[in-house]
Amino acid sequence: MAxxxxxxxxxxxxxxxFECPNAAIAMKGETYVIKAxxxxxxxxxxxxxxxxCPVENCIVKA
Amino acid sequence: xxNIVSLQSITKRGEAQPQTSGCxxxxxxxxxxxxxxxxxxxWNKIKDHPCYSEEAHHYFARMHVAVAPACNIQCNYxxxxxxxxxxxxxxxxSERMTPEQAALKVVAVANKVPQLSVLGIAGPGDSMFDxxxxxxxxxxxxxxxxxxxxxVSTNGLALPDxxxxxxxxxxxxxxxxxxxxxxxxxxxxxxxxxxNGKRYTGLxxxxxxxxxxxxxxxxxxxxxxxxxxxxxxxxxxxxxxxLEVNAAIKARGAFLHNVxxxxxxxxxxxxxxxxxxxGPSAAELKDLQDKLAGGANLMRHCRQCRADxxxxxxxxxxxxxxxxxxxxxxxxxxxxxxxxxxxxxxERADRQAAVAVAEDTLAATAxxxxxxxxxxxxxxxxxxxxxxxxxxxVYEVDHDGVRFVGHRKVDNYCQGGWGDDDVLExxxxxxxxxxxxxxxxxxxxxxxxxxxxxxxxxxxxxPFEYIETAIARWYAEINGQADVALGSIA
Lengths: 62, 490
Hints:
Radius of gyration of chain A: 10 Å
Number of strands of chain A: 4
Radius of gyration of chain B: 22 Å
Strand order of the largest sheet of chain B: 10-9-8-5-4-3-1-11
Pfam families (chain B): Nitro_FeMo-Co (PF02579), Radical_SAM (PF04055)
CATH architecture of chain A: 2-Layer Sandwich
Number of domains of chain B: 2
Structural class of chain A: alpha+beta
Distance between the termini of chain B: 24 Å
Helix content of chain A: 10-25%
Number of helices of chain B: 14
Shape of chain A: globular
Largest sheet of chain B: 8 strands, mixed
CATH class of chain A: Alpha Beta
Family (chain B): Belongs to the radical SAM superfamily. NifB family.
Organism (chain B): Magnetospirillum gryphiswaldense
CATH topology of chain A: Alpha-Beta Plaits
Keywords (chain B): 4Fe-4S, Iron, Iron-sulfur, Lyase, Metal-binding, Nitrogen fixation, S-adenosyl-L-methionine
Number of helices of chain A: 2
Strand content of chain A: 15-25%
Oligomer: heterodimer
Order of helices and strands of chain A: EHEEHE
InterPro entries (chain B): Aldolase_TIM, Di-Nase_FeMo-co_biosynth, DiNase_FeMo-co_biosyn_sf, MoaA_NifB_PqqE_Fe-S-bd_CS, Nase_CF_NifB, NifB_C, rSAM, rSAM_sf
């Protein structure tokens, strides 16, 4: 149970990094990645990373 | 003279003189309080800021660093994926950098561009939503250049949470982009916002944004931070509504209102670009700005610069200062900036005297107002060759004075050493529509003839004169006051 960032459409703005309540998102190389073991998909709430991401469908279920 | 904040109007403070130039006309001097009553502490905050003072923009340069890319709202005129180094518009940048890199870049620019007076953080992204990086950048720069002014641009949604931190950093200027005070209109501009960990859409989004923006204005005023409000003029969406925006922001203490035309092109991939929403014409923009002139002070010299712009307004040296060209060991040398400031102080006094003479010349001339364009490289002088101009500054002249109206970007006539007739015909002449005369330091006989055929007189009789001096002499001469016109019509 985790989300992932679609590298090809990520604009690398980093908005998701600070919004993630589990600190599961970090810059890796040129883009951001979600550490699957730390992602809880916000436990049933609307995932904050998806809510803040400016690119539609960039963050999806892994 | 400036129609935002002129040096002359400041120095006239306290004297019982009739208002001259822009203040007595429908131009944009602003509130009935008048520029002349501006307190010293306000003038000190703006006199070296090229974006807040039209007069300062002839002398001082700004730079933006794109350190805060995260944003908390989606605007229909913005597409976060688009990024092109050939483009010049807000939100566009070619490189993003860490606060540490930004500080190194500031030092490199300060060493080579002594006009530098302001560091701004203006996107892409929102400086107050991405506040950690914004404040870290200020801390890094403060260590190296303690005298540099800071400036941030924001949509205001997150600003109320950081007002104390802003004030701690001794930031004199904040720009808030406000496109509506009616959430119904907001729904046409903002598809969603992200606030307190949640995405809001529709009317809810615009209501929250509006409330937070108004709260931002009040909070900034309470901290004595000068506020500029940027509004994007979107024909058919908020153009007439901006009159209400102007009144609302003025009531909350905003110092300056900058109405910018929507930049819209399908190639940018924005919602407005893709749906064919057009931007306003230069004439529509001026018409709205004239209507707004009784409200908050109006800014007309905005160049809608890139988020990583470097240099004087209207010029962009950003490609000369990309990170790969910056030496990590660079040390700041304050001497060049100090010397430049000394020169500016002398120039300002000299120009102020020249403007007074120009106004006396004009006061004796009763004739209809005319629009003219000027090619200038800065310093408030007619000092650029026609073929080298990539923009013209537009002035309106009548017996009340010479007032700055705006600028028009053009393609260079001179292409690789040769004049380009296609550029003249397809770009320059249409762009200069409504302009009667173009003031240049020099122009060839061919383009001069071609301009004349299009009804535009090229004037090269006043090279390196102050803009106001040149225009006033020309105006007096064409209106039969030959005795005061020392130059001749070219």
